[in-house]
Amino acid sequence: xxxxxxxxxxxxxxxxxxxxxxxxxxxxxxxxxxxxxxxxxxxxxxxxxxxxxxxxxxxxxxxxxxxxxxxxxxxxxxxxxxxxxxxxxxxxxxxxxxxxxxxxxxxxxxxxxxxxxxxxxxxxxxxxxxxxxxxxxxxxxxxxxxxxxxxxxxxxxxxxxxxxxxxxxxxxxxxxxxxxxxxxxxxxxxxxxxxxxxxxxxxxxxxxxxxxxxxxxxxxxxxxxxxxxxxxxxxxxxxxxxxxxxxxxxxxxxxxxxxxxxxxxxxxxxxxxxxxxxxxxxxxxxxxxxxxxxxxxxxxxxxx
Length: 304
Fold this sequence. Notes:
This protein is 34% helix and 17% strand. The protein is of the alpha/beta class.
């Protein structure tokens, strides 16, 4: 699973810079640094956080001046900012040497791609050459432009699902396949999806080929024409379309249920067409998950 590979890569880098042996100072706590800080507290002996700014007034964040009292031979300073020139100029008079006392973490993780934030999906793109994150303005009529599901959205939803053995999920408007991959990482055993945009479909196929995932059922088609869904028990919508398209897809899911009665769930983010689901006669709202989108709650519906 790719979550484990991400953990292994990060922990290998942290071991390389001395985590567990030296006193670790993470310079830059937002974005890139936040992931390293969480990992150091989870898997190692923690760290000290350094930053010139402390807008929240956090007591655990120190100013760079505190490094003047540090024994450099016992320290590893992890520079997490894009431009390290100023930090290096500050450290140089203290005798700090690159790759001995301080480390440019963006270069260690991503090589030359310094603009990438540190997170699972960016690591996946860089490590395997995938294309998940770039959206596409392909709005047309009732169809909404493609944007990938954020990692944190799937993370929060998956935590509420109690995914059972043998679970199968179908994604309507799958785009480049990111949500499918993430749900797979969280325990969905079989995945499938559809997108009518050939460019997005090709990107999804390319991503899964690069990752060695061969058992995903990916379709390039109009979502309304997908009928063979009787083997799926989860259906995912990241607001791909509205109106008559959404209604026809819900009708198809209802017909599938009548052909093969089973416990089914619909996961719906940005719930524009909520009424169409509850008016179907077979689904009820089971729970809501706060995800922080323009519709702040993602809805989970069930047939039970």
